[in-house]
Amino acid sequence: MKRTSAKQAKPAPAKKAKAKAKAVVVNPKAKAEAPKKNSAKDVLDFDNFPAGNVTRRDVTLCLACIFRLFTKQLGLAPRTAHNEIRRYAPTVAELTAREPERPFFKPSDEKNPHCPYCDAPKRWHARVAVHRVEGGKATDAARRALVKKLTTKDEQFHIHEEKKTTRQIFFEWLERLGQELNFEDDRAWMLAATRAYLQRLEPKMDWREVFGGVRAVRRSQRLAEGWELDGARLFLAPTIYNDVLLVQYLVSRSHRHGGRTFEGRLTLLDLVRGMRYGGHLQAHGITDRDQFDVLEKLVEQLTGGGDAPAKLHFIIDRRELLDKVKDVYERHS
After folding, report:
1. Sign of dihedral through CA atoms 144, 146, 148, 152?
2. Parallel, antiparallel, or unpaired for β 125-134 and 54-62?
3. Which residue range(s) make up the domain with 73?
4. Are both 110 and 63 inside the same structural domain?
């Protein structure tokens, strides 16, 4: 793969210093000041993970809703209710639902948010985060190393595993991507969707840096594979470019009439016809004539096997929940 960037002039070699170095005068006040320490990294550090294989979802849990359920409806004593809430283990389904249900709700940017169910103020709200890691060679070693570092005290972290197929994982990823994109700005969401797909295709590449100055994505007429960055233009080999078109079509077809892509608005028939005439179908051995059968084969090729077994790993962060429960109990005991 070739990466093109603008050449920079080499700096002239520095002249050798002839004078002796002057003694450094230390300010006695500065001497007394302790050096600033770098803030410690959070134990849940995913810097060593490929960006395209890790996602995070935050939801807010209203402790007032749960506390009232236990004390008012179930008649539990405050201390017992406190212990029950501390043991509460939110499920992955609760934390990843498109529309959270009571006692969960979506995080708010308001300075002083209130619970949409019981109007409880911010002090009753606890953030619960769930980190989703796709299993595979790119993440397994880093995930195991991370899990070993996590404390088991008070069950601050819950670990879950789900068995899926590569097709299921791909469409779950596609659905989340569709929720994050702003389809009112075609240029912005198309670039974002392209970057998201390339992160999955080459997870070790820093695509944030690559896309830092990208203004347009083009089909390369000379690359047989890979990609090339030329100034503000990113050129993709025909196979990758067609895969990007397919991702754009799939992610936008439920939001637009047909699907929006770099090639304009396309129906499934338009998409298949373009890939057939461009040689993309032949290159992948797809000879079906029915457009829906062709789409099925394209998705299978895109997901790397379709029904091949795969795993998802979830790390649920309960630390803020535990801290807030303790604070709430002390306030109301």
Report:
1. negative
2. antiparallel
3. 51-156+318-332
4. yes
DSSP one-letter code for 14: P
Q: Token pair 């770099």 is at which residue? A: 262
Q: Write the DSSP assignment of 41-78 as a string of letters.
A: PPSS--TTS-GGGEEEEEEEEEHHHHHHIIIIIS---H
Q: Do 192 and 278 share a domain, yes or no?
A: yes
Q: What pLDDT is stored for residue 255 in this prediction?
A: 57
Tokens of 201: 């295709």
290 & 182 share domain:
yes
Q: Give the C-alpha separation, 90 to 104, whole Å.
A: 10
Please indicate, yes or no, whether residues 288 and 325 belong to a single structural domain of this protein.
no
In tens, the pLDDT along 274-305 reads 999 888 888 888 888 888 899 988 988 888 76
Instruction: Take residue 299 and report the two structure tokens written for it.
Output: 């998705």
Which pTM does this prediction carry? Answer: 0.75
The reply to whether 146 and 189 lie within a common domain is no
Q: Render 256-323 in DSSP notation, one character per residue.
A: SSSEEETTEEE-HHHHHHHHHHTTHHHHTT----SHHHHHHHHHHHHHTSSS-EEEEEEEEE-HHHHH
